Amino acid sequence: METTSQPNRAGVRTVDGYLLAPFPWYALDEAFTGPRWLMQVGTSADGAVEHGSLGHGDEPAVRADMSADRERFAVVVTVAANPVRRSADGTGVLEATSVSSAAWLAGVGLLSFTWPQQMDHTLRDDWLDQQTETAWVLADDLGGSDWSTLSLPVDGVPQSFHYRESEFGWVLAGSTEQGVHLGAYGRGMSAYGLGFSMVKDIASYES
User: Fold this and answer.
1) Structural domain boundaries, residue 46
2) Number of domains comprising the chain
Protein backbone atom coordinates (compact mmCIF):
# COMPACT_ATOMS: atom_id res chain seq x y z
CA MET A 1 0.00 0.00 0.00
CA GLU A 2 1.78 3.12 -1.21
CA THR A 3 0.58 6.04 0.87
CA THR A 4 1.81 9.22 2.45
CA SER A 5 0.87 10.37 5.91
CA GLN A 6 0.36 13.64 7.68
CA PRO A 7 2.74 13.88 10.66
CA ASN A 8 1.46 13.70 14.20
CA ARG A 9 2.99 16.79 15.82
CA ALA A 10 1.60 19.03 18.51
CA GLY A 11 -0.40 21.81 16.89
CA VAL A 12 -0.70 20.04 13.51
CA ARG A 13 -3.56 17.70 14.35
CA THR A 14 -6.19 19.14 12.08
CA VAL A 15 -9.32 17.25 11.17
CA ASP A 16 -9.20 18.42 7.54
CA GLY A 17 -7.81 15.20 6.07
CA TYR A 18 -10.29 13.07 7.97
CA LEU A 19 -13.19 15.12 6.59
CA LEU A 20 -12.04 14.36 3.01
CA ALA A 21 -12.41 10.61 3.46
CA PRO A 22 -15.23 9.00 1.41
CA PHE A 23 -15.65 6.30 4.07
CA PRO A 24 -16.69 6.26 7.75
CA TRP A 25 -14.12 6.43 10.55
CA TYR A 26 -14.10 3.94 13.40
CA ALA A 27 -12.90 4.24 16.99
CA LEU A 28 -13.38 2.55 20.35
CA ASP A 29 -17.03 2.57 21.35
CA GLU A 30 -18.63 4.55 24.18
CA ALA A 31 -17.50 2.04 26.79
CA PHE A 32 -14.10 3.75 26.57
CA THR A 33 -14.30 7.02 28.51
CA GLY A 34 -10.67 8.20 28.38
CA PRO A 35 -8.92 10.73 26.12
CA ARG A 36 -9.31 10.49 22.34
CA TRP A 37 -7.06 12.18 19.79
CA LEU A 38 -6.31 12.51 16.10
CA MET A 39 -3.19 10.90 14.67
CA GLN A 40 -2.75 10.95 10.88
CA VAL A 41 -4.35 10.06 7.57
CA GLY A 42 -2.70 8.23 4.68
CA THR A 43 -3.29 9.30 1.09
CA SER A 44 -2.67 7.80 -2.32
CA ALA A 45 -0.48 9.45 -4.96
CA ASP A 46 -3.50 11.36 -6.28
CA GLY A 47 -4.33 12.74 -2.82
CA ALA A 48 -7.29 10.49 -2.02
CA VAL A 49 -7.58 9.56 1.66
CA GLU A 50 -7.19 5.78 2.00
CA HIS A 51 -6.71 5.19 5.72
CA GLY A 52 -6.20 6.94 9.04
CA SER A 53 -5.74 6.41 12.76
CA LEU A 54 -7.45 7.59 15.95
CA GLY A 55 -5.80 7.29 19.36
CA HIS A 56 -7.25 6.45 22.77
CA GLY A 57 -5.73 6.69 26.24
CA ASP A 58 -2.18 7.87 26.92
CA GLU A 59 -0.40 9.37 23.94
CA PRO A 60 2.55 7.01 23.39
CA ALA A 61 6.07 8.37 23.12
CA VAL A 62 8.83 6.83 21.03
CA ARG A 63 11.17 5.34 23.60
CA ALA A 64 13.19 2.29 24.44
CA ASP A 65 12.32 1.59 28.06
CA MET A 66 9.26 -0.52 27.09
CA SER A 67 7.51 0.34 30.34
CA ALA A 68 3.98 -0.64 29.37
CA ASP A 69 2.89 -0.10 32.96
CA ARG A 70 3.29 3.63 32.44
CA GLU A 71 1.61 3.73 29.05
CA ARG A 72 -1.93 2.60 28.30
CA PHE A 73 -3.16 3.25 24.78
CA ALA A 74 -5.08 1.78 21.87
CA VAL A 75 -5.07 3.05 18.30
CA VAL A 76 -7.80 2.21 15.77
CA VAL A 77 -6.88 2.21 12.07
CA THR A 78 -9.65 2.55 9.47
CA VAL A 79 -8.82 1.41 5.92
CA ALA A 80 -11.07 1.97 2.91
CA ALA A 81 -12.05 -1.36 1.33
CA ASN A 82 -10.89 -0.78 -2.24
CA PRO A 83 -10.77 -3.41 -5.01
CA VAL A 84 -8.02 -3.44 -7.62
CA ARG A 85 -8.63 -0.24 -9.62
CA ARG A 86 -7.11 1.97 -12.29
CA SER A 87 -4.96 4.92 -11.22
CA ALA A 88 -6.37 8.40 -11.68
CA ASP A 89 -4.25 9.00 -14.82
CA GLY A 90 -5.22 5.64 -16.30
CA THR A 91 -1.62 4.48 -16.66
CA GLY A 92 -1.53 1.81 -13.98
CA VAL A 93 -3.37 -0.29 -11.43
CA LEU A 94 -3.69 0.58 -7.74
CA GLU A 95 -3.27 -2.15 -5.16
CA ALA A 96 -6.43 -3.50 -3.56
CA THR A 97 -6.87 -3.12 0.20
CA SER A 98 -7.82 -6.00 2.48
CA VAL A 99 -7.81 -7.11 6.10
CA SER A 100 -4.09 -7.77 5.58
CA SER A 101 -3.64 -4.07 4.76
CA ALA A 102 -5.20 -3.16 8.10
CA ALA A 103 -3.06 -5.74 9.90
CA TRP A 104 0.13 -4.37 8.34
CA LEU A 105 -0.69 -0.75 9.11
CA ALA A 106 -1.49 -1.69 12.71
CA GLY A 107 1.71 -3.70 13.05
CA VAL A 108 3.85 -0.88 11.69
CA GLY A 109 1.99 1.62 13.86
CA LEU A 110 2.89 -0.29 16.99
CA LEU A 111 6.53 -0.49 15.92
CA SER A 112 6.68 3.27 15.35
CA PHE A 113 6.47 3.83 19.12
CA THR A 114 8.92 1.10 20.08
CA TRP A 115 12.45 -0.13 19.89
CA PRO A 116 14.43 -2.57 22.05
CA GLN A 117 15.93 -1.09 25.20
CA GLN A 118 19.46 -2.28 24.44
CA MET A 119 19.53 -0.80 20.94
CA ASP A 120 21.46 2.34 20.08
CA HIS A 121 19.42 5.08 18.41
CA THR A 122 21.67 4.94 15.36
CA LEU A 123 20.60 1.35 14.66
CA ARG A 124 16.88 2.01 14.99
CA ASP A 125 16.26 2.66 11.27
CA ASP A 126 17.75 -0.71 10.30
CA TRP A 127 15.74 -2.40 13.04
CA LEU A 128 12.52 -0.70 11.88
CA ASP A 129 13.12 -1.75 8.27
CA GLN A 130 13.57 -5.35 9.35
CA GLN A 131 10.55 -5.33 11.65
CA THR A 132 8.38 -3.60 9.04
CA GLU A 133 9.15 -6.40 6.59
CA THR A 134 8.30 -8.94 9.30
CA ALA A 135 5.01 -7.14 9.98
CA TRP A 136 4.12 -7.43 6.30
CA VAL A 137 4.95 -11.14 6.19
CA LEU A 138 2.75 -11.71 9.26
CA ALA A 139 -0.08 -9.60 7.82
CA ASP A 140 0.05 -11.59 4.59
CA ASP A 141 -0.51 -14.84 6.49
CA LEU A 142 -3.51 -14.15 8.71
CA GLY A 143 -4.36 -17.84 8.77
CA GLY A 144 -0.96 -18.73 10.16
CA SER A 145 -0.02 -19.89 13.65
CA ASP A 146 1.08 -16.40 14.74
CA TRP A 147 -2.56 -15.28 14.74
CA SER A 148 -5.53 -16.32 16.85
CA THR A 149 -9.20 -15.37 16.49
CA LEU A 150 -10.95 -12.86 18.70
CA SER A 151 -14.65 -11.86 18.59
CA LEU A 152 -15.31 -8.18 19.37
CA PRO A 153 -18.38 -5.98 18.85
CA VAL A 154 -18.46 -3.57 15.91
CA ASP A 155 -21.47 -1.25 16.03
CA GLY A 156 -22.89 -3.67 18.58
CA VAL A 157 -22.57 -6.74 16.35
CA PRO A 158 -19.93 -9.42 17.11
CA GLN A 159 -17.25 -9.60 14.42
CA SER A 160 -14.28 -11.91 14.07
CA PHE A 161 -10.79 -10.40 14.26
CA HIS A 162 -7.31 -11.77 13.70
CA TYR A 163 -5.21 -11.14 16.83
CA ARG A 164 -1.59 -11.50 17.87
CA GLU A 165 0.59 -10.41 20.76
CA SER A 166 4.29 -9.58 20.90
CA GLU A 167 6.75 -8.13 23.38
CA PHE A 168 5.81 -4.70 22.05
CA GLY A 169 2.03 -4.95 22.47
CA TRP A 170 -0.89 -6.41 20.52
CA VAL A 171 -2.29 -6.09 17.01
CA LEU A 172 -5.66 -7.07 15.57
CA ALA A 173 -7.44 -6.72 12.24
CA GLY A 174 -10.87 -7.41 10.78
CA SER A 175 -13.64 -5.93 8.64
CA THR A 176 -16.94 -4.13 9.16
CA GLU A 177 -20.30 -4.24 7.44
CA GLN A 178 -19.79 -0.60 6.39
CA GLY A 179 -17.20 -1.23 3.70
CA VAL A 180 -14.02 -0.60 5.67
CA HIS A 181 -11.33 -2.75 7.24
CA LEU A 182 -10.23 -2.17 10.83
CA GLY A 183 -6.83 -2.54 12.39
CA ALA A 184 -5.92 -1.78 15.99
CA TYR A 185 -2.84 -1.89 18.18
CA GLY A 186 -2.04 -1.03 21.75
CA ARG A 187 -0.11 -1.56 24.96
CA GLY A 188 -1.19 -1.61 28.58
CA MET A 189 -4.87 -2.02 27.62
CA SER A 190 -6.36 -5.45 27.07
CA ALA A 191 -7.74 -6.02 23.59
CA TYR A 192 -10.25 -8.56 24.90
CA GLY A 193 -12.62 -5.99 26.35
CA LEU A 194 -12.64 -3.56 23.43
CA GLY A 195 -15.53 -2.66 21.15
CA PHE A 196 -15.62 -0.48 18.04
CA SER A 197 -18.19 1.91 16.61
CA MET A 198 -18.53 4.37 13.78
CA VAL A 199 -17.46 7.90 14.70
CA LYS A 200 -20.42 10.26 14.65
CA ASP A 201 -18.44 13.52 14.85
CA ILE A 202 -14.78 13.29 13.81
CA ALA A 203 -14.34 17.01 14.57
CA SER A 204 -14.75 16.23 18.28
CA TYR A 205 -11.32 14.51 18.17
CA GLU A 206 -9.53 17.69 17.14
CA SER A 207 -7.33 19.13 19.89
Assistant:
1) 4-205
2) 1
